Amino acid sequence: MAKKKRMKDLTLLERIYLPEIAKGMALTFQNMFRPSFTMEYPEVKFEPPASYRGRPVLALEENGEERCVACGLCSRVCPALAIEVQAAETEREKERYPEKFEINMLRCIFCGFCEEVCPEEAIIMSKDYELAFSNREDAVYGKDKLLTPVSVLKDRIEFLRQYK
Amino acid sequence: MGILEIVIITMVKILIIVTIMLLTVSYLVYFERKISAWTQNRVGPNRVGYAGLLQPFADVFKLLLKEDIVPDVANKPIHTLAPILALIIAFGTYAVIPIGPSINLFGHEIAMVVADVNIGILYVLALTSIGVYAITFSGWSSGSKYSLLGGVRSSAQMISYEISMGFSIAGVLLFAESLRPLDIVASQSGFMWNALIQPIGFVTFVVSAFAETNRLPFDLPEAEPELVGGYHTEYSSMKFAAFFLAEYANMIIASALIVTLYLGGWQIPYIETLGLASWLTISLQVAGFFVKMGALLFFFIWVRWSLPRFRYDQLMNIGWKVMFPLSLINLIWAAILVMLLN
Amino acid sequence: MPKITIDNKELEFKPGQTIIQVAKDNGIEIPHFCWHPSLSVSGNCRVCLVEVEKMPKLVIACATIAADGMVVHTQSEKTISARNAVMEFILINHPLDCPICDEAGECKLQDYAYQHSVGESRFTETKQHKDKRVELGPHVMFDGERCISCSRCIRFCDEVAGENQLTFVKRGDKVTIVTFPGKQLDNPYSLNVTDICPVGALTNRDFRFKSRVWDMSSTKTICSGCSRGCNTDMWVRSNEVLRLTPRYNDNVNSYWMCDNGRLNTFKFVNEDSRVNGPHLRRDGKLTKVGWDEVFASAVSELKSFNKDEVAFIGSAYSTLEDNFLFAKFAKSVFGSKNFDFPRVTVPGSGDNILITEDKRPNSLGAELVGMSGNGMNFNQIIKGLIDGKIKALYVVDENLIELNPELEANIAKLDLLIVHASNFNTLTNYANIVFPSATYAEKNGTWINIEGRIQRLKPAVATFEADRSLDGMAMSRLDKFGTEYDRWGKVRKVDARSTWKIIVGLANAFGTKYKYTMAEEVFSDISKSIDEFKDLNYDSIGEFGTQLKFKKQIVKV
Fold first, then answer.
1. The dihedral of CA C66, C69, C72, C77: what is its sign?
2. CATH code for the domain in which residue C38 is found
3. Which member of B82, B150, B164, C508 lies 3.0 to 4.6 Å from B221 by CB, making a disulfide possible if both were Cys?
4. What residues of A are in contact with residue C210 (Cβ under 8 Å)?
5. What is the spatial distance between Cα B233 and Cα B253, in angstroms, rounded to a whole number?
6. Quick check: C140 and C185 in contact, CB under 8 A?
7. pTM above 0.90, yes or no
8. Which phi and psi angles does B97 have, rounded to 5°?
């Protein structure tokens, strides 16, 4: 077998191994006295930055109207097929609204494509990362859980306008 | 002393030792997790009880409630026997390790060792060798390739390192001129610690002890990236807990053995010259034993969270080409020393 | 033949053809909004501008007659820039409401905006506002802002439907479409304007906002509304039929279909009244039972009657295969001569466009495969029913009570009534045994239309036994990637079978082994035993059907 070329051969001291081990152990020992980075979750909560992609939600205007017009682009672009939309007619100026809007949070992969494709700035990735459910049915979020006032989503909307 | 008394005293000793062992093992796991957290700038277990102190009990309780799964293709009797064997050996070895000098209690001279056997060291070596069977059995009987490979690796590793371990101990025996643990401790009075007299032997023994206990950097039998869980892949519930306990018990034995063989046992150099009351001296000496052992256990854990795992060929290289010759050199060195001192 | 060169390709053409027709025949696409192959040329959208050598200006391909030696460029720099300019003009007043618009996904303007537009508008002024949501007629909704004034709908009403109902009013950018005063867009073909509208200005009120077009699968099938047999596409989402659209077939329906066929021939497939699984009457109530049980029960019931006490009634709704096997069963397994099917014609209901008087899609087919026995004919069977001579009736896919409400009392008196029905109806109220019959949307088969053209039916809706992917059915994206845990994967599948398949089970229960497992095998038996179908199979019938050659004169129905 051809001898492998090394960038640099090890010195004798390094080959004895023990000094190197001592060095490494010294490093870990030092680390024992450094402060920890742990965030103790239920008591201390992570406040994500605006660029964070949490649970997708539907924006609800201050006057109580939803922005979504049920165009179905989010549903079409969703690589995980998590979104299901059923449109219906309304008397509002934008004559279409989602009669049913469901996101299956078991399927959602938080890629944010739905947010990117949305022509109405209606579906927005919120900062909510606390998603727990105990059965498949609960994992399907309907409009009742998705509609979120715009005021809560301000950060993200500003971020989107800046960078999208 | 009547037979009955001897039996009662021995039973009490066993009870004390087993209780101490179980408690220490539980908290060893706790400290393992805590120390790993500290080295990684984390917090570690802190939810169950104050600072997570009840965590070991929660763990045991959880394991107790788990379903005991035995693979269909497993050889069931051996599959069950393996963890029991591992545990018996782990606890059995402790019988011959003295934790302090003899004390006078209710008019009886009582040695602080369960069994004062005059071939104690041989007994230890014999039992640890049987320990290989526990792992080989579990690996073979599980009917899983991961378990089998873990078992094979473990037996090869243990046999390889037992040689350097044996030769290292031989150096100690030359000085003590006895296989009795109490004599070995006695031979290291003052600063005549074997660790200082024969440093090479000390290093080879410690390294071999790491290998024998399957601790990092020698934990190849259970190398997770390659072998899932190694020999205990197919174990769950209390059988898994038994292996887990045995591993940590082995660690304690290894530490105790190192203290006994190389660090002067329970002795604190020149404590007799201070002229303290005898009960205080003895208490201090027992405490000294545990402090030394604790320091070694900390060392075990500290190493685990600092060093990466060896590759299998590296492990064998070190065992046969480095440790074995070094232990031979140590033996010669010890022999020369003995000759010169006499 | 004269020759024309389009995009460096020398092409032959028939004198009188326009450039766009020559190009279309040869697979070269010239963009167009107002031009439609079946309508007159109006030439007002200007998007089909092409460069013709030796002509000073660009010409519109739809109105320029091809001439020998003409050299046309459809992809030259000049053409493309003109096309971009036209697109920009058209898009000036077109609202950007694709998200709301139902046409999105099958919109010509949307496609061309991607293909032939620069992608940005220089128009910063306010767009023209026009009337939205105008109900032009009972079925069609009009959005004035989306209209690009191509006039296709106006020309369709004038030229194809033959009723002048729509017109342009106002001028310039205020131009819009209205119905003539006092008129509505209510001709029987009105919904075709929603198909030919190149944008979303005209939409189907029945389908409005029901589904995005890309969520549905489409299956090439045949309309069941009358004996014309218009070729259609059946659009299905989550195993539910949502709409029918006409499919081009020059020999049958060109690009069109009637509103009745489009709106009223598929809704029963989705209804809750579907018969799901075989039913037996127990203690006066229809109870769902297993297939084996129902076959055994049907056999023992049928065997208790004299052969001339039982009559079998087929249907011109059923496929050739269904009728063929049903007749065969009645004749050779049960041994009765009393089998026929009702002819349902509504005199005066036809027109000379598409709608026919015969309201059944397969009358000719039922006749051809011998659904009429040489015993009692349909009228005699009905008479026998009234007289009490007929004690047991086996009816497939027809509701006798709906055809003749006076029969209700007589039917109630029958000793045995076996019915194949897709939906529970007034007839199943009296049935002793109900077999769940697959609808025309759920089965493979063939129909023969009034002109003697044999055409294929394909399943668009999956029944309980069917598997979309294994049975080669059309699949939407959701069908392909759905699992049983998804809401849209939990579709309703009715436990229904084609009549021929039920007959196979029944014949086997009678002790006569029929070995058919697919409709195709029944058809190959038909083609072997009946001259008119010689050498035909499902592949050779094809997408557009095959005209049959008749050796004997068929009784005109």
1. negative
2. 3.10.20.740
3. B150
4. 87
5. 25
6. yes
7. no
8. -95, 120
List average pLDDT for each run of 10 residues in chain B, which is 342 residues long. Answer: 80 85 86 89 86 86 86 86 88 81 71 78 86 85 85 84 88 84 81 82 89 81 72 83 85 88 82 77 85 90 87 86 90 88 76
CA nearest neighbour of C30 among C96, C106, C101, C82:
C82
Predicted pLDDT at B142: 86
- Domains detected in chain A: 56-163 (3.30.70.3270)
Q: What residues of C are in contact with residue A143 (Cβ under 8 Å)?
A: none
Strands A96-104 and A83-89: antiparallel
Does the predicted interface ipTM exceed a cut of 0.90? no
Given CA atoms B137, B133, B93, B159 in this order, what sign does their dihedral have? negative
Distance CA B221, CA B146 (A): 9
Distance CA C80, CA C74 (A): 8
Q: Within this chain, do residues B39 and B168 fall inside the same structural domain, yes or no?
A: no
The answer on pLDDT for C361 being more than 90 is yes
* 3-state SS, residue A86: strand
| Whole-number Cα distances in Å, B112 to B17, B24, B97, B254, C74 | 10, 18, 9, 18, 105
Asked if residue B15 is part of any domain, the answer here is no
In percent, how much of chain C has pLDDT > 90?
78
Does any domain span residue B323?
yes
Local structure of residue C418 (DSSP, 8 states): E
Q: How far apart are CA B264 and CA B193, in angstroms?
A: 5
Helix/strand/coil for C274: strand
For the CA atoms of chain C, what is the radius of gyration? 27
C387 in the same domain as C290? yes
User: Is C339 in contact with C514 (CB distance < 8 Å)?
Assistant: no
Same domain (yes/no): C158, C290: no
* Residue-level pLDDT at C557: 43
* DSSP-H helix ranges across B103-144: 120-141
Which neighbouring-strand residues pair with C448?
A: C454
Count of other CB atoms within 10 angstroms of residue C55? 13
The DSSP call for residue B234 is T
B166 and B276, same domain (yes or no): yes
Q: Are C116 and C87 in contact (CB under 8 A)?
A: yes
Chains A and B touch (3+ CB pairs under 8 A): yes
A42 touches chain B (CB under 8 A): no
Neighbouring CB atoms inside 10 A of C464's CB total: 15
Quick one: how far is CA B249 from the chain centroid? 6
d(CA C413, CA C432): 12
Phi, psi (5° rounding) for residue B338? -60, -45
pLDDT of A2: 64
* Whether residue C502 is found in the same domain as residue C415: yes
| Closest alpha carbon within chain A to B44 | A38
Identify the domain containing residue B52 by its residue range. Answer: 22-65
Numbered residues of chain C with Cβ closer than 8 Å to any chain A Cβ: 97-100, 104, 132-133, 208-212, 214-215, 477-478, 481-482, 485-488
Calpha distance C78→B215 (Å, rounded)? 79
Number of structural domains (chain C) is 3
pLDDT at B1: 63
What is the structure's pLDDT at C556?
Answer: 47
